[in-house]
Design brief:
13-stranded mixed sheet; 207 residues
Length: 207
């Protein structure tokens, strides 16, 4: 199988202020619990799995990380937008579960439980108040952190990251899917590009 997906994403999780998962640190929420519950919504502007065109598909990736990422035992599930065809939804499931190889194939060694795929309305919006929405499950608004010059704060070259550089921020809202419920605290947004040809140094399923 050969595949590629590229586009933009918004994510939110339970970690207090800055999520440590990107650098393989132990996560910590506002109550001191060492776990990360998160969701990311991804819009694929260009993509394919073999001969299945994935351009225009939106999907949500849910996670529970009980410790730092390389400790494993992750729980991961996905929700694919109801507007995607059955073939497109199955292709996303095949990629994210790791069955198609590539970077998610490498990451699947850390899965304790793959929670499968569900269907619902999935969307993300850009602009002054970026937001992710998964019908009946998640609704989170992103606000960027900013430096002294007023520009957004970013992180580069993280060991586990969806993007080589992404914007850090806060996430306001609530999520509850696959039995993984949390109040948003940390947020991020950026662009992504993954494929079977991607070198080692894969992205996380981090929210």
């Amino acid at each position: 199988m050969t595949w590629t997906i590229a586009g933009n994403y918004i994510a939110g999780c339970s970690c207090a202020l800055i999520c440590g998962c990107a650098v393989d640190a132990k996560p910590r929420d506002a109550k001191g619990r060492e776990e990360c519950l998160g969701v990311g919504v991804f819009h694929i502007s260009e993509g394919q799995l073999d001969d299945v065109d994935l351009s225009g598909v939106d999907f949500a990736l849910y996670n529970e990380f009980p410790s730092n990422l390389t400790s494993g035992n992750w729980k991961v599930g996905i929700v694919v937008d109801g507007g995607a065809s059955g073939d497109q939804a199955q292709a996303i499931d095949t990629i994210i579960s790791g069955r198609a190889g590539g970077p998610f194939g490498e990451l699947s060694q850390f899965f304790g439980e793959y929670l499968g795929m569900e269907r619902a309305d999935v969307s993300l919006s850009d602009g002054e108040k970026p937001r992710l929405s998964v019908g009946g499950r998640s609704d989170i608004e992103f606000t960027a952190l900013r430096g002294p010059d007023g520009t957004p704060t970013t992180m580069k070259n993280a060991l586990f990251g969806f993007s080589p550089e992404f914007t850090l921020g806060t996430a306001k809202g609530r999520s509850d899917a696959f039995g993984l419920a949390f109040e948003g605290a940390y947020g991020e947004l950026g662009n992504f590009s993954f494929s079977t040809e991607q070198a080692e140094g894969a992205p996380t399923g981090r929210g």
